[in-house]
User: Fold this.
Amino acid sequence: MPSLARKLLVCAAVDGLVIQPLVTKGHRTPSSVKIKYDDATVSTIPRDQTPDTTKPNSCFEAFGIIGLFTVSRLSYLVTITGREQVAQIRGFPVYVVTDVALTPCTSQSEAETAVKHTSTQLRRASAEKIIEESGTDSEVEAPSSSAGEDADDPGSHSDGENLANNGGAPELAGERSNIAENVIRRRGSYGRFAQRWFSNRGWMMDQKRNLGLSGSAIDEGDDASQATTNSNTDSPSGDKALSSTVLHEKVDASPSPSAGESLLPKLLRMSHIWFGSSRSFFFSYDLDITRSVASRPSPIPNVPLHKSVDPLYFWNQALLSPFHASGEDSIMLPVMQGFVGQRVFVVDRQPPQVDSQQDSMEMSDMTHDAEDDAGTFSRERKSADLRSSEKKYMISVISRRSVKRAGLRYLRRGIDDEGYTANSVETEQILSTPSWDPSSKIYSFVQVRGSIPIFFTQSPYSLKPIPVVQHSPEANFRAFKKHMDRLGQNYGSLQLVNLVERHGVEAIVGKEYQNNAEKYNEEKPDGSQPLAFEWFDFHAACRGMKFENVSLLLDTLGKTIDKAGSTVEENGVIARRQNGILRTNCMDCLDRTNVCQSSFAKFILDLQLKEEGFDMSAQYDQVNPWFNTLWADNGDAISKQYASTAAMKGDYTRTRKRDYRGMVNDLGLSLTRFYNGMVNDYFSQAAIDFFLGNVTSLVFDEFENSMMTKDPSVSMSRMREQAIETSQKIAIEDEKEDFIGGWTLLSPHISDTIKTSEFEEVVLLLTDTALYLCRFDWNLDKVSSFERVDLAHILSVKVGTYITSTISPAQMDEPKNIGIVLTYEPGKFDIKRTNTRSLSSMSGPAGQPAEDTASAPFTAAGVLNQSILNAISGKPREPTPKKIALKALYAHTSISDARGVKGMTEKEQINTIAGEIERLVFINQPLPGNKDVKSIVEKGDIISLEEAKKSTGIFEQLGHTIKKLVWA
Assistant:
């Protein structure tokens, strides 16, 4: 039994939404699967309970399941309704997802409406395909010619095939004929221009605009044109109407929608674009495309494909978890983000040496024939009469994007604590015969790209942002070592190719990269291979559009590439393995990286063909458009997935020429990237983290608060523990003080303030005699300043509601917004020290010199005690109390909930801190005699919701509203 039934029926029935794998040739049909509306769980049901599919538009056909996601109380099933074959590897087709349908699972009526709408759209697309001119490319393929077509045919790759296959669906040929006849009749009066508009743009744009969702029910008796009018003119956008209707369903939930629900229309649009129209997700039903030739294990019979794929490239693993929990392996389809492309080309052992017009025409025909063969498997290939000295080969390029530290350009840079880098991509180039003859050799060459493996960030608000190195050198090296150890374990010897500038803003991280590589080699164990580090300043070497100077890098690395070699498979057995890898990076690992990687790939291809007996330098065609186009497409695909635009310098990759038109095009791409980095990427990043299972749906509530996203790969709990430990070493100088505990809280940026628009995360330390408020530099892992308050000077502790903003629902949630205000009378031993980041020190106000602590010099800016103030002024002065305001961090976040971390609530944390402070204050302030002890903890609002609403300015509200309109 295969890992996945080739086709599925998604049906809306009275008892639920049912997914039924169709009967396919030679395979039994598994039980149907039902998505329960109440909690979006998955369970199997007997086949005799399968709903009646004979009703018109009661179901639609899907080619696989992406998965299921839930936001608050709303659940959606994502299914593949469009696919296109882009390659065949070892006789198995590889597809790219071209369209998806999002079907709600929370409401019975909405599920039925959405299924009906999707079915209508797919039938309309099938009818449109019938009347198109033969040979016209389309995103939606032709319907099946008969109901009995074999769904498992490896050569079949249609997106919208006939729903009347062997699965119980009704025969729709008559209905399609009526639609086609109606459309033809309507087209007749518009001429050729209207015909092209309706066939390629008008209706296709309608499909994309509706996102496979329904905005209103479409009467079954309506024809295609009326359905188009109803769904696009009389009703709002499909996703907006759908989410709006679901929000008003009477279900057991809070009557007011959460932030996640209010952002649902944008999430649905992003889901459809990301999974469907982006053409960035690839899959195969029988072949594991996530592993290279060298790393592919021997196939194990009866093991589902989703259990054998590499989890590092399994992009919908989290979305398929409900099906995995129910044991429905047969409908779990792993998809991979990246690129898959193929080209066929011809080489000659004895190429013609005399140029003639006839030879030129013949070679031109063979070149065009090879290009036609490259990616078109749906139509019969043209055949060229090859001479005995000629041979056809197929080159396949597969790029696999890692799910670790996945995301978009400026929001995912550098490395994380576990040693995974942003934009990490493994690219494999495979050389084979078009038929994949087992007796012929199969060559595989693998190289990787990834962000510079150190902690750094760059602001998206600049065309040339300055990188900022984060964290301590020790933390950077720990992560760097994990990264390199993992690469060495997976690939062998490592050749690092650094393409950033040696001078200017990029040199900051480039130098740090080199320093870590040198330190790694110094500390490597005896017998292990050192890192080979090559710094090639691409911009300096190729200044003046002289990109051909990349050959200088090849001159340096040629022997290394030759020594690493490539993996060779013959008769199904690995005869030779690639024993090293090139890791290439620039700042984004996109444009410069792709140019160089394509050069490395062409170099190794020439070596492989030379081993086969072909000299590429003697070939008639030296341009190799089949190779250049393939690698340019690969670069564009990776760039769109990381930077939302095609790759820059693509003109050189395609033509090996560079001129002013390429520079103008690159300028436009830079401006587009700049806009996306400032506006679109924040929400998209939140959605990507959500789909990968790194965060829960709470991420959308958090996004609405600040229009920003947090990095789930960075363990904030670990960082906070380290911050508390570092602060303890720096701030607590007296060894006699017993450390009681430490917490991270929010505090106003300005001391002795309660109401402020800016809050920062601080560290609060408590000893048996004092408390310390440490302001921490989270980028550098340093204490920037700390304030010591003697517990004997604490006057009161107030605990209560602390509302700091009213621009989002989460910020107005009173149980979550709890704080504490400490009032104290400054005294002799209360000091404040500030990190000067220099070796200088100043004398404290009490005449005591400020001693440098640890490696960070601090200056004492201690608080003058009252006696000194009186002496200076010449008259007694009443002591002025000061306040320290602290607010609890949110206990439940999208990251902590995703990791299953459960801790104290906000109220419990604040009460614990207040209780400990009160207990120690009484110890440090003994009362005379048997006087009753009065609690110093006061319960009451610090800033109530009503007060916060009054103090929230109209400009603050307007600014957030405008920002939400733009960002969300």
About this structure: The longest strand covers residues 74-89. The chain has a mean pLDDT of 76. Residues 208 and 277 are 8 Å apart (CA to CA). The radius of gyration is 33 Å.
